[in-house]
C-alpha cells in the first residue's frame, strides 16, 4: 500500500495537475449530470482511488446525483482479503457509501477475462435504469488495449478499444478519465496524499497486459515518447470509423428488416434479397451489426459459412452454426435461432383438463379460443404422414398444408399437434392460416418468446 507525502517542488505542479484533471473530468461528466444515481467501480487501486477522490471533491461544490462506490471482491489471492477493509476506510473518510460484492470467478483459459466477466456481472446487478457506473481506465490503458487487440488481429470495432461510454444493464458504463494519463493520476495522488493498493498480480508479466505495460511500452516510449497518446488518438479515429460502419449497417438493415409473415414467431429475421445487392464487405458489416447483440462472431477467416448459406439453392435449408446459436435460411428469409431454441423435448404431453393453457416443455404454451372439445386430449409432435380434416377441403396431407403456408422448416418439428386418441384433431391456427375447426374453437400456440430465453 502506498501513501505519498512528497510535497515542496511538486506542490505547484500538483495544484495545476488537480485543475487539469478536474477540467477533463468535468467535460466527461457533463452528459450524465441528470442521471438518477452515480456509482464508482472502486478496486482500491490508483486509478479508481483518484476517480473517487475527484468525484467526492466535486460533490462538495456541485450538485451531483447521489454518489456511491462498489468494490468487487474476487477472492483470487490472499492479499485481496485486506482490500475491502481498505476501501471501506477510504469511503468512510470521504463520507461515501460503499457496497462490497463477493463474486465467484469461473476457472477457464483466461483468468483476466473470467475475473472481468464476474466483475461486470456484479455491476449489472447494481445499476438501475438510467444510472451511471464510472470506471477509472485512462489513456495508458487505452493505448495498451489497442496494441493488445492489434496483436490479436482485431477488426475495426476491437481496435476502437474502450468506448468513453456504452450501455450497461439499463444504465450506462462511463470512463471519464480516458483523456488523462497515468502520470497525471499519479501526480494528483501524490498532491492529495492518497493511499492506494498495489495489486501484486499487476506486476506478473505472464498476463499479456502486464507484459505490454512493463516490457513493451518502456521500449516504445524510449524511441517514440508520444507513443501512448498517439495510440490513444488512433483508437479515437477507429472509434469514429466504427461509428460510420454502424451508420451504414443501419441504412442497409432498413431494407432487409421487413416484418415476417409469421408475426407470432418471436425470432429475429431478415429478408435475404436486399442483402444480396450489397458487396461482400457490406454484407459482413450489416450481419456483424445485426448479430453482435445475439452472439459472439467469428473472425474474418470464418465467414465461409455465411457464403454457403447465402448461395445455397432455394429449396435447400442451410444453416450457419455460430457460438451462441444458428442462422437458418428458409426460402428468401434468414432466421436467428439462439441455442436455447433447441432445448426442447418432443415427448408427447397429456392434456386431461383442456380448459387451461398447457405449458409445453421448452416450447411455449397452448390454449383454446372458444369452448374446448371434450378430453382426454394429448399433444404430440410430427412423425410424418399425418392427415387432417380441413373444413370445406376434406382430408388433407399435413406436410402439403405446411408447404402451402411456407412455414419455416425449423418450426415444423416443434409444431404441437392435438390428438384425441389416435385421431389428429387440430393444428394451431398459426396467425389465421388454418380455418376454424369443425367445432366453435381454435387451438392457439404461443411459442417461446424473447423473454423466455430467446434473447
From TrEMBL:
**EC identifiers of the protein:** 6.3.4.19
The listed locations are: Cytoplasm
A Gene Ontology biological process in which this protein takes part is: tRNA modification
- Give the source's domain of life in one word: Bacteria
Q: Which GO terms describe its molecular function?
A: ATP binding; tRNA(Ile)-lysidine synthase activity
Q: Where is the Lysidine-tRNA(Ile) synthetase C-terminal domain?
A: 377-445
| Keyword tags | ATP-binding, Cytoplasm, Ligase, Nucleotide-binding, tRNA processing
One GO cellular component term of this record is:
cytoplasm
Provide the reaction this enzyme catalyses.
Answer: cytidine(34) in tRNA(Ile2) + L-lysine + ATP = lysidine(34) in tRNA(Ile2) + AMP + diphosphate + H(+)
The primary site where this protein sits is cytoplasm
The answer, when asked if S-adenosyl-L-methionine is one of the entry's keywords, is no
What family does this chain come from, according to its entry?
Belongs to the tRNA(Ile)-lysidine synthase family.
Provide the domain comment.
The N-terminal region contains the highly conserved SGGXDS motif, predicted to be a P-loop motif involved in ATP binding.
Described purpose of this protein according to its UniProt entry: Ligates lysine onto the cytidine present at position 34 of the AUA codon-specific tRNA(Ile) that contains the anticodon CAU, in an ATP-dependent manner. Cytidine is converted to lysidine, thus changing the amino acid specificity of the tRNA from methionine to isoleucine.
Supply the NCBIfam families for this chain.
Answer: lysidine_TilS_C, lysidine_TilS_N
Entry-linked PANTHER family: TRNA(ILE)-LYSIDINE SYNTHASE-RELATED (PTHR43033)
Question: What protein name does the entry list?
Answer: tRNA(Ile)-lysidine synthase
Q: What species was this sequence derived from?
A: Pseudomonas antarctica
Q: Identify the coding gene.
A: tilS
